[in-house]
Fold:
Amino acid sequence: MVAELDRWADPPLLVLASLADEPRHGYAIIQDVAQTMGVQLSAGTLYAVISRLEARGLIEPLRPAGRRRPYRITATGAQELAQQTERMRKVAHVAHARLSARPGMAGA
Amino acid sequence: MSGPRSAPDREPGAPLLARAALALYPPAWRNRYGREALSLLCDLDGGLPAAASLAWRAIPAWLWPPPHLHDRGGRMRASLASMLVAWSALAGLGLVFEQLTQQQPVDPPGHAVIGWSYLIFDGAFLLSGLMLAAGGLPLWLVMMRRARRRRSARDTVYLLLPALVPAAFLAGLVILIQFIRQPGGIGTWWFLAVTLAGFAAAVAAAAGPGLALRRLRPRGPAVRLAVVAFAAAVATMLLACAASVIASTGLTVWARQFAGYHQAGPIAGYLALVTIAGTVAAVSAGRGARAALAGPPGM
Structure:
């Protein structure tokens, strides 16, 4: 059940969020996601996600720096991320309000 | 979007496990992401777990390849080559079936299912060969012209192998039979040796155009026509093989007096070989036809 509710840790969303402020290469994405979002992405998961996001035009590769290739979010990717986070914000708002109304949960 | 042509899984200094994991991916994926994925594994220094995570994700990369990495022309050429080899193997199995059943000097069995299976086998086998020849000829001519323009003797020989190898095999067979013929036939071991030699000849004959496809890299309508025709030929050959399996099983069940070698063991072996070759042929036909029929005619 917990795994089914784990949409908040959806790897594509985490990668898009990581790239929202600046371009990053694979290692930097993994480090950023772990430090700022508390999720450890594996190398296999990361490149599966990168290939899917690139295929959908949500991120794009930049010129490689050595053997590392940075990626940046596209306009479409930013729009998609904004829609997803807005939906998550609404869900969080409703959940927070209703949890606060439960007896013994005030101030939650 | 094509990446570097060098093999990233042979990158010097990369961990063996990482290179092994990367080798599991489709070539297009490796060319595009291999170098940076190896770099990431080196940075992570994750050892076996990191390499295992990469290896595990190779399965969906094969099953659902990212569309932006799809090399439609390459897919069609690879499918053509594998369809040709698999079709040849199925045709060889069909000829063995024909030799051991319909060509035997005994009365045909009277059961209707066996009779109908023979008819379906003969018709489908012939139709499949015609479709393969008709669909492959324009592409063969395109490649032959390209080989001549390049003055490539090797490609010309590759393209002539489908005619040269069977001719050499049949000529050798005619000569051999003069020496080994006995009153009751050629004997079981000679039959097996000739059959194996026939399969080797069929694979060699089919591999020639396959190698030429890799070297000459033809494009255009002739490739699409060949893929569609080969896929139809494979489907028809599978029908023929299904009929042969039904007939073989029927001979074992309903006509046990018909020749002494119709026992469960050979039938099971025949069924296994047909299943393996048929699976390869069907998968290649499906993937090739999907590439040929998707999108505009250009590649």
Notes: Chain B has a mean pLDDT of 84. The two ends of chain B are 15 Å apart (CA to CA). Chain B touches chain A through 28 residues (CB under 8 Å). Chain B has two domains: 8-67, 72-293.
